[in-house]
Amino acid sequence: MKNISRRKFIKISAAGTASLALSGILLDATPKIADFFDKDPLIESDAERTPTYCEVCFWKCAGWVYKNRKGNIQKIIGNDNDLESHGRMCPRGTGGVGFYYDEDRLKKPMIRVTDAAGNQSYKEVSWDEALDFTANKLSEIKDQFGPESIALFTHGSAGKFWSHMLNSIGSVSVAAPSYAQCRGPREVAFLTTFGVGMNSPEPTDIENSKCLVLIGAHIGENMHNGQVQEMSTLLDRGGTVITVDPRFSTAASKSKYWLPIKPATDLALLLAWIHIIINEELYDKDYIERYAYGFEQLKQHVQKYTPEWAASETELDVNLIKNTAHEMAKAAPAVIVHPGRHVTWYGDDTQRLRVVAILNALLGSFGRKGGFYFVSKAKAPSFPHKAYPQPSKTWKDMLDGKYKLAGLALASGICDATVPDATGQIKYKAWIVNGTNLIQTLPNKANTLKAINELDLLIVSDTMPTEITGYADVILPECTYLERYDMPRVSQGRYPTIALRMPAAKPKYETKPGWWIAKQIGARMKLESCYQFDDITELIDWQLKKIGSSLDELQKIGVKVMERTDNMYLLPGENRTFATNTGKIELYSTALAAEGFDPMPVYTQHKQPDSGFYRLNYGRAPMHTFSRSQNNPNLNDLMDENSVWINPKIAKMYGFTNGQEIWLKNQDGIVTSSAIKVRITERIRHDSVYMVHGFGHTAKQLTRAYGKGASDTEMITNVKYDPIMGGTGMRENFVTFLTENPNNEEVEV
Ligand SMILES: Nc1nc2c(c(=O)[nH]1)N[C@H]1C(S)=C(S)[C@@H](COP(=O)(O)OP(=O)(O)OC[C@H]3O[C@@H](n4cnc5c(=O)[nH]c(N)nc54)[C@H](O)[C@@H]3O)O[C@H]1N2
Ligand SMILES: Nc1nc2c(c(=O)[nH]1)N[C@H]1C(S)=C(S)[C@@H](COP(=O)(O)OP(=O)(O)OC[C@H]3O[C@@H](n4cnc5c(=O)[nH]c(N)nc54)[C@H](O)[C@@H]3O)O[C@H]1N2
Ligand code: SF4
Ligand SMILES: [Mo]
Asked: Which ligand is nearest to the CA of 60?
């Protein structure tokens, strides 16, 4: 097959206010409506509303979509029966309507063409042509290099259909960035300690907790709806929040204790907390005796991690370290040392999260009211299909024996295996990318582009012309979540719940639902399992009937909460076996020891910034999600660019003023493509700067988002891989400031 050499980026030109005020942002606050938006009054009748669950982030709140008299989508409000949203959407969910109305959306399928002079552009084509092209190319690659050379990157609801299609071909390389770039280390840490992962939504019983400890988890800016609401309840009840964050986050501002930790030293604090809790005998003795393995080894292990030592490592006051340990112990077992979510920071992340898990075990909070509850989930069958072909190689085989404890495919691992290795071998030839903007999502953009250039085929299915679409050989435009069915949301939680998403309107332009696109490709490739249903409604109804509901029922009620038969918490004196090697909660991890890793977490120092450089810290803003929402007219109205937070002492040194535009340059000499405005604030330490992720778009077709603010991803070129599971630590990057535009050439992507 002919390799498309130097795949160039192409500019696609083808031819009811609720009461929750935790972050000063109201849930359900309807964003300002953009001018084009239809202002006709709402139909008041509930009969006209259709159920959905939100796709703006992966909390997946269930809501109702209302239309106006003209039949146009008008607003989305939460479904009162939903345990994820409790009837309220967050600002992003409310603003989701803007994804439907965004006139910059992808509108038609497109194929990359190269003219005689070698110029590349996109040609608009019919769906038939796009699907034939895709299926033919995939078949050629499958025949020539084997099915295992095809990988899927997905972060979105249609991923289920794409992975079904890929599994039917005979490849299991299905990766989501929500693992190796997000929560993977936490899953491995909890699995090796308690025998279960956290998954989503996390089973943190915040609502009933007396003390919540947030370590670099910025709930309130991280707008995961149910969690934010539960934290608000905890605060209303007078519960204690302890926030460990080098930045004075919104959560820190609501906390009884704020620990402005020196970045990258959290392990020291956590180990010292364990030291105090063990040495002062504040741990739950009965719980540890009954359920835990390795207490004596742990006790020995932490003796050197004294609070005084931790105080000097972390630059925290020793009494603050002690008092917070006592506060946790006082609240135990109704205490949560929160596992966080985006935890790929410094490369020793699994071990950091192991200490979090161990601390929860010592406090007896796992399986206890106000700590972590045991989840319940409906057992929905997946699609009816014949057994998938046995792959000759899996994504694990592609990792050359590295990252043995990775539980899911690594998006970064597949990307790395697409770049030629020392012998010149390339393991992946084709990528299917559904709903993930890999250019902004994977660290080390140059490496991502290198991999993309090696591909024989890049298929992108997206709703927007984001950066990744400009590298595609074929673009398959998906309709938005408001215009399609997807498989029902089957969530874990205190009770099993199911929620339906159905179209509120016909797909605009020539966009199609993901299930249809994947099925069409499968059918063209003659994959038998893709013929098992004609329409997705058959599949949904079949699945729902197996778990005690039906399509008809869910179309009326949107969400169904079911009964559970098992216990949410441990019973007093209950004997319980945990799914670890020893059947116990492993303070000493036999699984890690067996693979040659430290069975108990060890502190190592991380690099601190050189003089004139500042650690790049990044996070969320309440009104945006990753890089997917900046062009959404409603959300863009609320926040149209990010800024770089700089401590006043540092700003003074450089003579910066608020709002001044600067460029950032990192330790490897990489400069941001666009300028970012300075925000001078005491809320950030003097050794770091902070910016919101997702801005600095370089794709011009995003007319509202292009060139607004800067991209943190561009600055993340140093990646600290977690040796245990391959997570990509992204917080060991340092930046300095440029006051004049260094980009004299127009930068493409
Ligand atoms: N630098 C940096 N990198 C990060 C992070 C960070 O904070 N900083 N965060 C990490 C974390 S925690 C995560 S979970 C990941 C998230 O990573 P991603 O999920 O890749 O995040 P997005 O940048 O939002 O990319 C989503 C893409 O899906 C498209 N899309 C949106 N809706 C739909 C749809 O309905 N259908 C289809 N087909 N496409 C759709 C959007 O247009 C966009 O191109 O990023 C990780 N990477
Ligand atoms: N509004 C909104 N909400 C979201 C999302 C979104 O895109 N938008 N994405 C969702 C997803 S997928 C995820 S994974 C979560 C991510 O949200 P979280 O897991 O809560 O947070 P992170 O983005 O990892 O961390 C950001 C915080 O860590 C702090 N921090 C930085 N370095 C250090 C350090 O060395 N030590 C400590 N203790 N703290 C440090 C930062 O100052 C910041 O406050 O948010 C979810 N919620
Ligand atoms: S938290 Fe907000 S953006 Fe995420 S699913 Fe819920 S309403 Fe949507
Ligand atoms: Mo995430």
From this structure: 3
